[in-house]
Amino acid sequence: MGDNPVTVTGTAAADELSPEEQAIVEVVRDFVDQRVKPVVRELEHANTYPEELIEQMKQLGIFGLAIPEPYGDVHVSTPCYALVTEELARGWMSLAGAMGGHTVVAKLLLAFGTDEQREKYLPRMATGELRATMALTEPRGGSDLAHLTTVAVPDGDEWVIDGAKTWITNARRSGLIALLCRTDADAKPAHAGISILLVEQPRDGLSIGKDLPKLGYKGVESCEVFLDTCRVPHDAVLGGEPGTGFAQMMKGLETGRIQVAARATGVAKAAFDDALAYAQQRESFGKPIWQHQSVGNLLADMGTKYSAAHQLLLHAARTLDSGRRCDLEAGMAKLFASEAAMEIALNAIRVHGGYGYSTEFDVERYFRDAPLMIVGEGTNEIQRNVIARQLVARGGL
């Protein structure tokens, strides 16, 4: 049931973490069970920004988990980061979204930023004092990032930016936006003229539009962003070299897709836990409903698909930490986990019967949150293209 889920923790995942990392995951799990679950239904239904929960996440160091010394105090492996994300999403997927883009920007700065950029932003990002987001999607082009219409033109020692972005999560409350834009309109191929500009806000020429209405993913904002003769310093280019932004962002999206896969497994886990608990409590025809084969089969499939998605997630996380290219592995994890989450959320409603359609139970929220992972961070149709290209390029698995 929504209030009393049975939590099943995979020992295989925990065994590969250091004792310190295991402790971090346990702290986040306790935070979810003790602080998030008692208030999430009211906050989500009211579409209320979870200010207190975000502040508690800052205090726990969650926004700095991907930032090593000397900029941060705690740096964890990608498997640990994935498990923390899964725990947050198990409580409320929006909380995992609140730190998703922030982490990608931190990874971009660590991998490609200049020393000055790292020193300027990362210490404040590690504490959560400065929150960051990335701005990729445009109103007329979703996944086609190579043909951006947001442009930045050099003017003396500044860039002048014009354009618009949409579906930018945390846009209103982030002080730093990693903006993907075109800095050379004549570059061939087109992606060679793309850069990432580090745009601090508030600033003249940058405005945040309305909060976009959403089926799920409530609480945190997803907004339109407008740039009208917005000026930033010339050294705002990530890494200092224009024209390298497309490759930089593709690398950053490996982390992003692992994060989205972890959100999906978190939602799937919550839906499975609630369904498993309810099937043991609810009786019909004189026995718990899990003993009816139709319900038992649903639970068996749900548990199996969650476990498979969880292992794909950890495989992608380990591959990223190995230093090898992991767009195939991250794409597979994101594809399978998001589709599994959607199916598991629907089956959780089936297990709950009429109560699954009630807003007094959490499974209806899982069903509204799950579709985001199918279309977010590159649609699953795009993931299949990425996977197919890499299968051919690598000569198979």
Could you explain how this protein is built, in words?
Helix content is 52%, strand content 14%. It is an alpha+beta fold and 397 residues long. Helix 11 runs antiparallel to helix 12 (363-375). The radius of gyration is 21 Å and the shape is globular. Mean pLDDT is 94; it is low at 1-12.
Helix-strand blueprint:
Elements: H1 11-15, H2 19-36, H3 40-46, H4 51-59, H5 78-91, H6 93-98, H7 100-112, H8 115-127, E1 132-135, E2 151-155, E3 158-169, E4 176-182, E5 194-200, E6 206-211, E7 222-233, H9 245-281, E8 283-284, E9 287-288, H10 293-322, H11 327-352, H12 363-375, H13 380-393
Parallel strand pairs: 1-4
Antiparallel strand pairs: 2-3, 3-7, 4-5, 6-7, 8-9
Helix pairs in contact: 2-5, 5-9, 5-10, 7-8, 7-9, 9-10, 9-11, 9-12, 10-11, 11-12, 11-13
Outline of the structure:
With 397 residues, the chain is of the alpha+beta class. The chain has helices at 11-15, 19-36, 40-46, 51-59, 78-91, 93-98, 100-112, 115-127, 245-281, 293-322, 327-352, 363-375, 380-393, and strands at residues 132-135, 151-155, 158-169, 176-182, 194-200, 206-211, 222-233, 283-284, 287-288. The chain has 13 helices and nine strands.
